[in-house]
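Postdoc handover notes: sequence design on the structure in folder B. Input tokens:
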């Protein structure tokens, strides 16, 4: 039976890293990237552990098996993953509802991934509903960026309630910055 919870053990962190490796851009075929989506950043155990010490992430499990994860990154995580420093810096220049994005209380969805056997079973929605239930009292919204060519991820985020507020291109890709504003949903 599937259930959403908060990461609590080292084993769960290792399961996240294993699932991440199975879906990492560049390690799966171009066709699979296009049809199934992908994750962009490979975390280390240490960076993941430090992120979870600041704010644990959400996972969906089926017994002891990890069905999916959705990583929480607070603004304090900006120095933990060098590949994401430019994302955090870019947020300094983005406005949302006529205010600088950084004037709001938000966290970043650091990465979301659903294991192949569990796709199409509502795991993605369960991850985000747990995020909202658990983190809404502390934050106005969650923000993330998605490679615009990752159409499956864009559609899944829109279905949850995310809206694109900005797009930009860097050395890696074209990105859509999306927000799920809990104050208006």
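Designed sequence:
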């Amino acid at each position: 039976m599937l259930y959403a919870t908060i990461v609590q053990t080292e084993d769960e962190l290792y399961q996240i890293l294993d699932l991440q490796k199975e879906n990492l851009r560049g390690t799966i075929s171009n066709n699979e990237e296009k049809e199934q989506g992908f994750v962009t950043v490979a975390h280390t155990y240490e960076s993941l552990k430090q992120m979870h010490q600041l704010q644990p992430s959400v996972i969906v499990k089926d017994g002891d098996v990890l069905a999916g994860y959705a990583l929480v990154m607070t603004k304090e995580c900006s120095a933990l993953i060098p590949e994401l420093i430019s994302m955090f810096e870019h947020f300094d220049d983005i406005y949302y509802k006529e205010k600088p994005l950084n004037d709001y209380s938000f966290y970043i969805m650091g990465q979301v991934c659903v294991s192949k056997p569990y796709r199409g079973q509502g795991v993605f929605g369960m991850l985000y509903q747990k995020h909202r239930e658990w983190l809404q009292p502390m934050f106005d919204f969650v923000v993330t960026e998605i490679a615009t060519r990752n159409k499956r991820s864009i559609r899944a985020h829109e279905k949850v309630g995310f809206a694109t507020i900005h797009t930009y291109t860097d050395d890696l890709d074209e990105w859509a910055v999306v927000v799920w504003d809990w104050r208006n949903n």
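Context for whoever picks this up: The mean pLDDT is 90. Don't rerun without checking with the PI first.
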